[in-house]
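Students often ask why inverse folding is considered easier than folding. One informal answer: many sequences map to the same fold, so there is more than one right answer. In these notes we will look at a single instance of the problem. The structure comes first.
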């Protein structure tokens, strides 16, 4: 009886019980020290040592704080991007979402400053941040529905949204940067650009979100469903997983991470320019891929996202300290992406 049930399953389909271990298999069967993330972490340590020997200023307190803050913005969005990539998708709109959410937050603070809410502690800041994140949710929802329900290509959909969001950022501001204002301005700067025991808030947010994502991916049903979609979407649907719901959720979470990072950058810069985070989508995708996320889906995690983002920032910072034209960063990032994918292919015994 059991044999007949097994033979009737569609070719290539996975049994329901298999999905209970999809996320765990990716984590435990391969193990961190056998993963691409571990190789990249080793490369990061080696590069840090070389940079420190080449430039004594590299490990100075000021430069370390600068590197930590800069990579945190990229790292936060890379966490969301990793979710999308694990399902086999891509989101090219994150840079534009960062700008649009930052502008929405700054303009909301300006508008609320002249209302009765100005007398309520933290009200204008809270509502302004909610407005910025709300814009990000709407963009992510649009991306997710177009990809999951309408069936459009993730690449084409998010490329179009990149243009729409960036165009809206320029249209509503007429190309002028928006500065946060109001009675909660100091609290806003403390929330976005403050420190705790000398650690920048952006770093604290990044580490906290990475820990949460790690738990979600490897210890919840949602995380297992995310891995299942990337492994075999048709088989996942056959086991009763709501493919549409999971896809929409990851695109919303990705946009939320972009919106949050954009708001943090507003506090760091003291303004929300319309050209904020232009081109960041490529760096973010690069960080995810370098950290071990597979563009074919099914592989990825928060540790790799954080390490990948840090590696890119260390290289960028090292080039600046070495007096090398910073535009070479673009060339090096591209080379690192190709090398990272090649090493993973060779290590796993698959043809490139």
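Output (designed amino acids):
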């Amino acid at each position: 009886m059991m044999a007949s049930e097994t033979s009737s399953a569609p070719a290539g389909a996975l049994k329901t019980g298999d999905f209970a271990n999809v996320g765990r298999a990716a984590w435990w069967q391969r193990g961190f020290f056998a993963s691409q993330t571990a190789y990249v972490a080793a490369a990061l340590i080696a590069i840090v040592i070389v940079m420190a020997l080449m430039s004594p200023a590299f490990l100075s307190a000021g430069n370390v704080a600068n590197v930590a803050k800069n990579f945190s913005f990229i790292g936060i969005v890379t966490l969301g991007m990793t979710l999308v990539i694990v399902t086999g998708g891509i989101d090219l709109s994150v840079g534009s979402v960062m700008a649009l959410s930052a502008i929405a937050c700054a303009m909301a603070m300006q508008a609320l400053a002249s209302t009765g809410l100005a007398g309520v502690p933290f009200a204008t800041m809270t509502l302004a941040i909610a407005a910025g994140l709300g814009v990000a949710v709407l963009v992510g929802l649009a991306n997710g529905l177009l990809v999951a329900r309408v069936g459009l290509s993730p690449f084409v959909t998010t490329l179009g949204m990149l243009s729409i969001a960036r165009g809206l950022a320029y249209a509503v501001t007429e190309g002028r940067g928006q500065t946060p204002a109001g009675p909660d301005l100091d609290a806003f700067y403390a929330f976005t650009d403050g420190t705790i025991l000398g650690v920048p808030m952006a770093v604290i947010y990044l580490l906290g979100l990475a820990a949460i994502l790690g738990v979600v991916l490897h210890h919840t049903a949602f995380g297992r469903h995310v891995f299942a979609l990337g492994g075999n979407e048709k088989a996942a649907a056959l086991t009763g997983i709501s493919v549409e719901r999971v896809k929409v959720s990851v695109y919303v979470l990705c946009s939320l991470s972009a919106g949050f990072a954009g708001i943090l950058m507003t506090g760091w810069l003291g303004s929300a320019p319309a050209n904020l985070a232009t081109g960041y989508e490529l760096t973010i995708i690069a960080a995810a891929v370098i950290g071990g996320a597979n563009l074919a889906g099914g592989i990825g995690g928060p540790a790799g996202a954080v390490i990948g983002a840090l590696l890119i920032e260390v290289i960028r910072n090292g080039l600046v300290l070495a007096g090398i034209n910073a535009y070479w960063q673009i060339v090096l990032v591209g080379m690192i992406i190709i090398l990272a994918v090649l090493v993973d292919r060779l290590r796993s015994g698959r043809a490139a």
